[in-house]
Fold this protein.
Amino acid sequence: MRDLLFSRDMWMLILGGLQTTIVIFVFAAIIAIILGAGMSYLRLSGKWPWLYNPLEWFVSTIHEVPAIAFMMFFYYVVFVGEMNGIIVSIIALGIYTSNNMVDVFSVHIGDVDKGQIEAGLSLGLTKAQCYRHIVFPQAFKSMLPFFAGELRALIQNTSFAGYIAQKDMMKVVDIIREQHNDTLLPLIIVTILYLILAWGITKFVNFLYVKMFRYD
């Protein structure tokens, strides 16, 4: 184990897996937030039900299956194994996570007192301006802690990328085990890295909360 601890090859593999995990997480989170915000707008506005209803059914239905099954379906069936696994992981996890993001946006925006929108309209603001300047800032404050939970779940789901031929951190543990016949050390290191990432997400969200709402 001592030799492995100072093995350059092992650390290069782990750092490469960490990079893959972070790339998948960041871009999947962006997709999930954009889709979640867009679908919550369609839900709350009641516009284009012909678009929202099938999207809502699709997103809520796929969330009933394990994330790994959805990722493998995308990789082996939708893209027949010909698309880069990192891109497939980003798309699949972004769509998978967007279902919870829809609920986060919808619930907290819907909780804002409708009387404030009416007051804004009476002052000459458009409905879009009311949502931008009155509703969303209040909703964003209450939804931030829930974002942290969803993002931590997303970072955990990135561990399934190894099933579609990607060297994420969990896949790297298998590679090191095969090469060096040692599972304990790389597993401990990778576990610590996941804990650090989850801690970093929580700290970042708390930083945003303090930075944006310190005077409230």
Observations:
- DSSP finds nine helices and no strands in the chain.
